[in-house]
Amino acid sequence: MSLPIISQRDLKTYQIVKTSTEYVYKSTYAPTGSSVFIKLLALAERNDRDRQTILSDVEYVSKRRSERLIEIVGIFRTPNTIGIVTEWMPNESLHSLLQQCALYPTLPLSIIIRILTDVTAGLSFLHNQRPPIMLQRLKPCNVLLDAQYRAKLSDFWLSDLQKVNFSKDQQENTSVIYLSPQRLQKHRPTTADDIYSLGIILHETLSRKQPFQEKHPLKLVTEITRGMRPQPDIDVILKETSLQHSHRTNLSQLTHLCWHQNPNMRPTAAECLSRLQNIQQNFSKEEIQFEIDSLNKGKEQPQERIMEFDIKYLDEGWLTRSRAQSVPEASTEQLSLCPETKKEKRSASLPVSVSKTNVHMPTTCPEQRAARNYGVNWTHRNVADSVPCPHLIWSVNYVETLKRNRETILNRVTEGHLNHLIDTMRSRCVLSREDSENINAERILKARTRKCLETCSEKGEEASRMFLDSLASQNTHPRNPA
Q1: Whole-angstrom Cα distance, residue 238 to residue 220?
Q2: What pLDDT is recorded for position 381?
Q3: What is the DSSP letter of 387?
Q4: pLDDT tens-digit readout, 183-192
Q5: Contact present, 103 and 299 (Cβ < 8 Å)
Q6: Contacts 24+ apart (CB under 8 A), 104-111
Q7: Which of 20, 34, 236, 481 sits 20 to 30 Å CA-CA off 92?
């Protein structure tokens, strides 16, 4: 194998860093001194043949080098774990850029067009391989951004892992909204499926709104296969831009062709790239650099919470055991959401972003005093940490925590707090206008709060986290029943 096998000696410590969508592993690769990202694959129950298949697939794609693909640094291996070590991308993902409205109030069109061009260039490179490499999971979370907001595709090494007999949950780890009608109907994957996903990303990036938010997943599958596409129409969105009429027409046609119901009508990645490059030529390098500098200068620094661990614990306990095996019995007791609250007799549960990406997150971690015995260094970089936190019954994730404390929250939330929370979530694109209207349609405060709780639970981890964080920031202290 030509890829370096990275050992614990090469990665002295690792950090768990919270991004906009999940907790990720960050470390420093000792030979180069550069920051790296560790993507762990859960293989404790896989046989040697399955593991070798994965290594062969990663080895194959790692030899296909492109500036628009995330660089694979090496393979991190332990007896129970295989991790893919890649370069670290400091500006997170396209999803972060689009969804963090408070952090990025406005997005320059020049940067947006360049990101879309980069994505298409990476896709064209993969499709031009013999045989073609199909991404099969193209979505904003897998479009990573470097310090200059240049985009690189990630997770392309996982495209052939379907051959390994993973569980159903692990196979269906791609969001429905980015899947083509053919994929939803279980047809054999083709490069045209990636082009469909590109069309959805074009619309989402230009509108800065995730499509089909109000649709139920089960109904969504049926409606997409029947021809439903994101709204508003791309022409309406493009009218608000400064693009010339000819380029607006070109971009509109490209979007509609990419998500065409007939896969044979969809353009190739190379054709998409040619069109986007033609539009990008309208923006000079100097203009793009000016916008990048303005974006970095104007945005607020993200509130970052980092937990640093000794690298040997990456395999010994937290990351290779299920919650049932690793959570102490005392974890069912009431826990404080404030990380600075002192615990004297038991471990604290780490907020976990539950996903289906084969990446294992720690389900428990020691409290600060005991952590020193485990080689753990806690670093908090969140101004909200100093705000008094409500004492709730903490669960495995934010959604479940919200559900478990439903009655307590209903009895304590005030009119002003709820109005402020809804306004904040609307400004950050977490709630849609229809969501807020449905909440405000309720006449009684408790009914409005109940509707907001239900909506946040349906939206998932980010919305639920914002609700719980607002309890601390508004100094609302639900009291546990005696």
Answers
A1: 25
A2: 36
A3: S
A4: 999 999 999 9
A5: yes
A6: 104/295, 104/299, 105/298, 107/208, 107/295, 108/288, 108/291, 108/294, 108/295, 109/241, 109/242, 109/243, 109/283, 110/283, 110/287, 110/288, 110/291, 111/149, 111/288, 111/291, 111/292, 111/295
A7: 236
CA distance to 21, 107, 246, 303, per residue, from 118 (Å): 22, 16, 21, 28
Q: 6: how many CB neighbours lie within 10 A of its CB?
A: 22
Which CATH entry fits the domain spanning 1-88+303-386: 3.40.50.300, 3.30.200.20, 3.90.850.10, 3.20.20.70? 3.30.200.20
Secondary structure (3-state) at 145: strand
SS (H, E, C) 60-71: HHHCCCCCCECC
CB neighbours of 482 closer than 8 A, spacing ≥ 6?
A: none
Handedness of CA 176, 60, 94, 266 (dihedral sign): negative
Residues of the chain scoring pLDDT < 50: 160-174, 302-304, 316-390, 476-482
Determine the pLDDT at residue 166.
34
CA atoms of 196 and 256, how far apart (whole Å): 9
Distances (CA, A) of 102 to 106, 137, 147, 466: 9, 27, 19, 13
How is residue 366 written in tokens? 């020691």
Tell me, letter by letter, the H, E, C secondary structure of 150-178: CEEECCHHHCCHHHCCCCHHHHCCCCHHH
Closest Cα to residue 128, out of 270, 227, 3, 20? 270
Residue 23 Cα to chain centre, angstroms: 9
- All structural domains of the chain with their residue ranges: 1-88+303-386, 94-296, 396-482
CA 169/CA 190 separation, integer angstroms: 22
DSSP string, 274-303: HHHHHHHTTS-HHHHHHHHHHHHHHSPPPP
The CATH H-level superfamily of 396-482 is: Death Domain, Fas (1.10.533.10)
pLDDT digits (tens, 9 = 90+) for 292-347: 998 888 665 544 455 566 666 565 334 333 333 333 333 323 322 223 333 333 33
Measured in whole angstroms, how far is the alpha carbon of residue 308 from the centre of its chain?
Answer: 21
Residue spans of beta strands (DSSP E) within 43-132: 72-78, 81-87
Place of tokens 């290594």: 55
Question: How much is the pLDDT for 6?
Answer: 87
The backbone torsions φ and ψ at residue 458, rounded to the nearest 5 degrees and listed phi first, read -70, -35
- Give the pLDDT score at 15: 81
pLDDT for residue 323 = 31
| Structure tokens given for 335 | 């826990």
pLDDT of residue 201: 97
